[in-house]
Amino acid sequence: MGGLLRLVRAAGAALARLRGARAFHPAGLVLEATLEVLPQAGRPWGVAFLDRAGRYGVTVRWSRAAGLPSPLPDALGLALRVIDGAGSGRPFDLLLTSSGTGRVTRHLPVLRTDAVGGAYSTLTSYRFPDRDRVIAAIPAGDGGHGRGLPVSLPDLARALAERPPAVFRLCAAAPHEPWRPFGLLTVTGASPAGTGPLTATGASPAGTGPVEGSRGTGTGPLAFDPYGACLPDLAPGPRLRRWREAAYAGSRRARGAAAPPGAGRRGGSDGHVEA
Predict the structure, then answer these.
(1) How confident is the model at residue 71 (pLDDT cuts 50, 70, 90)?
(2) What are the structural domain ranges in the chain?
(3) CA torsion 88→89→92→93, rounded to 10°?
(4) Which helix (H) or strand (E) holds 34?
(5) Residue pLDDT, tens place only, 21-48
């Protein structure tokens, strides 16, 4: 296992050196969203956040995992930071990747040419009180295939600014269960104050604000930590943790970047995931 992790770390470092940026999710679109946790008419989840109806602000980072140039398909990342989700002043992070919804495909990344052309899942299971379940964001409407959005980040920024918000049903399911919704995520074209959307080319679409991580903006790429910034009664399982940490640690080392504040704290990851 140690040898494989060293190979993953080395691969992350090599890719970061090759592209002169972080190895995975090198560019993304930072947007505002709202999460409405739905009242549970049936049996409760046993998770305080899910069993209490409410409305939360969310910071979203939509990204291309491999950073492949458009119009090539790519696995897409949908990283969520739920403001005050774990209590006042305590957000929680959720990382979702374009995937299928079947028993096997919910654990596998899927390349996309349409940003709302299918589901996004956590790939790894989360530990609910009664059993492990995968969490997914499924586009609302049109049989789960949405209304079509481009995967080029500049084009996606423009489309979200000009069209109605993108809406996802947040669901969870164990392998033998149907997907059961617990919330609605509504993603708008607005950017959190001072952050702005970023593009794959390093230039902002007209009128959309500064580029995340661009020179002179004072903003750097957002880092998410689904292990350290999780709900106390809903934590991700260990399935992908070591591999993610090894790949991103290699990426940071190659760029001379420090681990974000809080890395290595009890219950947190060795380094935040750079989704």
Answers:
(1) confident
(2) 25-240
(3) 150
(4) strand 28-37
(5) 454 657 789 999 999 999 887 789 999 9
Contacting residues for 136 by C-beta, under 8 A, at least 6 apart: 96, 99, 101, 106, 119, 120, 121, 122, 170, 171, 172, 173, 179
Taking Cα atoms as reference points, which of 52, 45, 55 lies closest to residue 84? Answer: 55
Look at residue 68 and tell me whether its pLDDT is greater than 60.
yes
Q: The tokens of 56 are what? A: 């939360």
Q: Which amino acid is at 245?
A: E
Structure tokens at 107: 């654990």
pLDDT at 41: 73
Q: Residues 30, 59: contact at Cβ < 8 Å?
A: yes
Q: What is the DSSP string of 222-272?
A: --B-TTTSSBTTBEE-STTHHHHHHHHHHHHHHHTPPPPTTTTSTTS-SS-
Q: Which residue reads 């190979």 in tokens? A: 7
Q: Would you say 73 and 111 are in contact if contact means Cβ atoms under 8 Å apart?
A: yes
Q: Is the overall model pTM greater than 0.70, yes or no? A: yes
Q: Is 212 helix (H, G, I), strand (E, B) or coil?
A: coil
Mean pLDDT to the nearest integer, 151-168: 90
pLDDT of residue 179: 96
CATH architecture of 25-240: Beta Barrel (2.40)
Q: What is the pLDDT of residue 1?
A: 57
Dihedral of the CA atoms 36, 193, 93, 2 (nearest 10)?
160
- Using CA atoms, how far apart are residues 267 and 45, in angstroms rounded to an integer? 23
3 state DSSP class of 97: strand
- In three-state form (DSSP H/G/I as H, E/B as E, the rest C), the secondary structure along 137-153 is EEECCHHHCCCCCCCCH
